[in-house]
């Protein structure tokens, strides 16, 4: 009996202008990735975003009620975030030190 090996990976081929290849190669180099890895990740990420834009979100009636209740309830401040926003921004802190 002959056994057929199934390929798990499928090749994808495309023709691109040299300028596009140069930009992809530069970006891949900056990320420490190969061209193939960089292009595959970018293509998969774009495909996921597209699918998420058109796919409905499904949940149970109880889950939807809990979701709408959470949206309708009053906001509760997160103390850690309040503290962060009270601090001067780094450029504000540096400017005030230089004014002395």
From TrEMBL:
Which key words tag this protein in UniProt?
Toxin-antitoxin system
Under SUPFAM superfamilies, the record lists: Ribbon-helix-helix
User: Highest taxon of the source?
Assistant: Bacteria
* One Pfam family matching this protein: TacA1
GO-annotated biological processes: regulation of DNA-templated transcription
Has keyword Transferase? no
In the record, which residues are listed under signal peptide? none
Gene3D superfamilies from the UniProt entry: Single helix bin (1.20.5.780)
The UniProt family comment states: Belongs to the TacA antitoxin family.
Protein's name in the database: DUF1778 domain-containing protein
Please give the organism.
Answer: Asticcacaulis excentricus (strain ATCC 15261 / DSM 4724 / KCTC 12464 / NCIMB 9791 / VKM B-1370 / CB 48)
């Amino acid at each position: 009996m002959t056994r057929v090996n199934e390929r798990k990976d499928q090749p994808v081929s495309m023709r691109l202008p040299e300028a596009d290849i140069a930009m992809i190669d530069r970006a891949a180099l900056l990320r420490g990735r190969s061209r193939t890895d960089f292009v595959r990740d970018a293509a998969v990420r774009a495909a996921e975003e597209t699918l998420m834009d058109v796919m409905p979100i499904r949940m149970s009636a109880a889950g939807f009620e809990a979701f709408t209740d959470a949206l309708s309830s009053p906001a509760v401040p997160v103390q850690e975030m309040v503290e962060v926003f009270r601090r001067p921004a780094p450029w504000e802190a540096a400017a005030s030190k230089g004014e002395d």
